[in-house]
Design a protein that fits this description.
Number of domains: 1
Largest sheet: 2 strands, antiparallel
Distance between the termini: 7 Å
CATH topology: 434 Repressor (Amino-terminal Domain)
CATH superfamily: lambda repressor-like DNA-binding domains
Shape: elongated
CATH class: Mainly Alpha
Radius of gyration: 13 Å
Helix content: 40-55%
Number of strands: 2
Number of helices: 4
């Protein structure tokens, strides 16, 4: 089965964690504008950033995006 990355679920994960974009930005050492770019799907997170965000939000990297099934690799 193959997948492609769908919409970003970061704002949903932030809401679940009762954390603001600014609080996450402060923990990551980036600007709130950078977090906003991820939330609005204007920029994809690098693997390193996604891992750090997942660690802060206590979730899996896979939980930060919607995953769309696109076919099978059988």
């Amino acid at each position: 089965m193959a997948y492609k990355v769908g919409r970003c679920l970061l704002q949903f994960r932030l809401d679940q964690s009762f954390m603001t974009q600014q609080e996450l930005a402060d923990k990551l050492g980036v600007t709130k504008q950078q977090i906003s770019k991820y939330v609005l799907d204007r920029q994809k997170m690098s693997l390193q950033v996604a891992k750090n965000i997942a660690s802060i939000l206590n979730c899996r990297i896979e939980d930060l995006y919607e995953w769309i099934e696109v076919g099978s690799n059988e």
